[in-house]
Design a protein that fits this description.
- α5 (185-197) links the parallel β11 (165-168) and β12.
- The chain is α/β, with parallel strands linked by helices.
- It is globular.
- The strands form four sheets. The chain has a six-stranded mixed beta sheet, with no helix packed on it. A four-stranded mixed beta sheet has the order 5-4-1-6, with no helix packed on it.
- 32% of the residues lie in helices and 17% in strands.
- The chain has two domains: 1-60 and 368-410, Urease, subunit C, domain 1, CATH 2.30.40; 62-367, TIM Barrel, CATH 3.20.20.
- The chain starts with 9 loop residues before the first strand and ends with a strand.
- α4 runs parallel beside α5 (185-197) and α6 runs parallel beside α7 (234-243).
Length: 410
């Protein structure tokens, strides 16, 4: 990907269908000046560079609300118009975070630091499989065994720059490792309360309905996965809705856990020309750790949550290209997630909101997720109309990150 414009240049994207993050608007022109959107629908300043968007749709840069990433992952994400990745656990130095904030060739990133989990708890079972990210994560991992340790752990993550707090409630039943130790309610409550004392969101990893109820009762702000061990009761749906918590279903992760590969996605020219062989190979595999699972049941749960007014955020839970974590790839899998959300029953516009304005609002990212004057010029221009055919999000013509145009090959 090449930088095609400089930060002080004015660019006008004209004749495009514009999805502003919430709706399709009548205006067809967006003016970029520097790193920000200068105007929408106004007269184009003299000397601006024109880009004719005829036949295309302009939308905000996409936000992936659940990843585990590194610099390579952030680079791949941006190729697919994912301008922000919200990590759900990772260890980043202040120097690395500063570098990310200053680079335009990698997606932006937010992180909770390390997650709250007991000794031997999820996701430490993946240590032996990793020769990269996860070994770095779990080397001398500071496990939490008491409420007091939870309070200190959360405070330490925040002091280190955590943007929100991640907590794990995972007994391993649905991820191929039954019998994992799980946080008790006192520790969970202590972690959530400490996050809230610092005005930080508390987001919890769950895969079962029981853990979901436990998390909601503790007052969490978001669920990092959709539970998939059984269909929900009306009472559980009502509890989630009344709590105000959002959910990141990660349907692509559920799909691969159920034994479905993403080989068709990997074979799509729009994907295979933008990923390395190791990632394409990983995308073509599946985890197959919960083959009894059914996407149709997950879809029904999504519809029930949507109908109850629960905010749904798009995220894919991609991390490393490991055999045990197959079926996922940075950037590409978020587009797959949008397709699955539509298959579940969301309208295309609802799915697009789930990757733009809704995560921006729920995570307090007030400078992105919308095409409005003053917002960051994080933009994605695609051929076709994803509001009619959601798969058109992959027909990428151009990506802008902080006003710099990056034209993906392929």
């Amino acid at each position: 990907m090449n930088n095609n414009v400089t930060l002080d240049q004015t660019t006008a994207i004209t004749n495009a269908r514009i999805f502003d993050g919430e709706r399709v608007i009548d205006n067809q022109t967006v003016v970029i000046n520097g790193a920000h959107i200068q105007a929408v629908g106004s007269v184009v300043p003299a000397g601006a560079t024109f880009i004719d968007g005829h036949g295309s749709t302009l939308m905000p840069g996409l936000i992936d609300s659940h990843v585990h990433t590194d610099m390579d992952g952030l680079h791949d994400a941006l190729k697919f118009g994912v301008t922000t990745e919200l990590e759900m656990m990772g260890r980043w130095s202040a120097k690395q975070r500063k570098e990310i904030s200053e680079r335009n060739d990698v997606a932006d990133m937010r992180s909770p630091g390390m997650g709250v989990t007991p000794k031997g708890g999820h996701p430490t079972q993946y240590m032996s499989s990793s020769n990269n990210l996860l070994i770095r994560l779990f080397f001398r991992y500071p496990f939490v065994q008491t409420p007091d340790e939870a309070v200190k752990f959360v405070a330490k993550q925040i002091a280190g720059g955590a943007d929100y707090i991640k907590i794990f409630i995972e007994d391993g039943t649905c991820v191929g490792f039954p019998g994992l130790p799980v946080l008790d309610n006192e520790i969970l409550n202590a972690a959530v309360n400490e996050a809230h004392r610092h005005n930080k969101l508390a987001i919890v990893h769950v895969t079962t309905a029981e853990a979901t109820k436990q998390a909601i009762d503790a007052g969490v702000d978001g669920l990092g996965h959709l539970f998939f061990d059984r269909l929900p009761t009306p009472e559980l749906i009502a509890d989630i809705a009344s709590s105000g918590a959002f959910i990141i279903p990660t349907l692509v992760t559920l799909s691969t856990a159920f034994g479905n590969s993403a080989a068709t996605l990997a074979a799509d020219k729009r994907v295979r020309t933008r990923l390395s062989k190791k990632w394409l190979d990983s995308l073509s595999r599946s985890m197959n750790v919960y083959p009894q699972g059914k996407l149709e049941d997950a879809y029904a749960t999504i519809r029930a949550l949507r109908d109850a007014g629960v905010d749904i955020l798009a995220g894919c839970d991609v991390s490393e290209p490991l055999p045990i974590l197959g079926g996922l790839a940075h950037g590409a899998s978020l587009h797959h997630e949008l397709q699955l959300l539509v298959a579940a029953g969301l309208k295309p516009i609802e799915a697009l909101r789930a990757a733009t304005s809704t995560p921006a609002r729920r995570f307090g990212l007030t400078d992105r997720g919308r095409i409005v004057p003053g917002a960051l010029a994080d933009l994605l221009l695609v051929d076709g109309d994803p509001l009619t055919n959601i798969a058109d999000t992959l027909s990428i013509r151009a990506v802008w990150h902080r006003g710099v145009q990056l034209t993906p090959r392929g």
